[in-house]
Write a structure and sequence with these properties.
- About 55% of the residues lie in helices and about 20% in strands.
- It is of the alpha/beta class.
- The protein has a five-stranded mixed sheet with strand order 3-2-1-4-5.
- α1 packs across α2, α3 packs across α5 and α4 crosses α5.
């Protein structure tokens, strides 16, 4: 399974591609950040994020895209930019028919570190260890994008089994 993780942001949108399956060593395929100038017009910034994500999709051909679920923050301006960048990532994937999964920050932290309250340094350290890297990816947005991809690879099989069980239960309820 090849997953593009996206840590959405308008100034720095982290992107990372991880390949592998649950229970086996994972491989980092690529990591980076799509940047936009903070003084640019919002529309131009969103186009730049779209172009950057499209390049990653073209180059790495992921089977899934995992995006950080936007959560409420005290700074409305920050959360709006994050939500807009998140929507761009989902749109780019949907346009290509690539399934999108949303994971909360605490889900990702728990999957990668064992604690939903881990800090950025802990996430970076575990991403480094899990992907057998020589150093944590910089900036933290890049490490977070890899963590999203890892989280999805590890959680997707269980989520798929759960969805199949619900669908089977629902279909049996209709035939009874």
């Amino acid at each position: 399974m090849r997953v593009l993780g996206v840590d959405p942001g308008l100034t720095r949108c982290g992107v990372g591609v991880v390949e592998g399956v649950a229970g086996r060593p994972l491989t980092m395929i690529g990591v980076g950040v799509v940047r936009t100038p903070s003084d640019a017009d919002l529309g131009h910034r969103l186009v730049a994020v779209e172009q950057g994500i499209e390049q990653w999709l073209d180059e790495h051909r992921p089977e899934f895209v995992a995006v950080e679920r936007v959560f409420s923050q005290h700074n409305v301006r920050t959360v709006m930019g994050t939500a807009q960048a998140s929507a761009v990532a989902m749109l780019c994937a949907a346009r290509r028919g690539i399934p999108v999964a949303l994971h909360t920050p605490s889900e990702v932290k728990a999957a990668v570190t064992g604690s939903g309250r881990a800090d950025k340094a802990q996430v970076g350290a575990m991403v480094t260890r899990l992907l057998r890297l020589s150093a944590p990816p910089k900036p933290a947005d890049a490490a977070d994008a890899l963590a999203l991809a890892i989280c999805h690879i590890w959680r997707a099989p269980a989520q798929a089994r759960l969805q199949q069980a619900v669908a089977l239960h629902t279909s049996k309820g209709r035939t009874a």
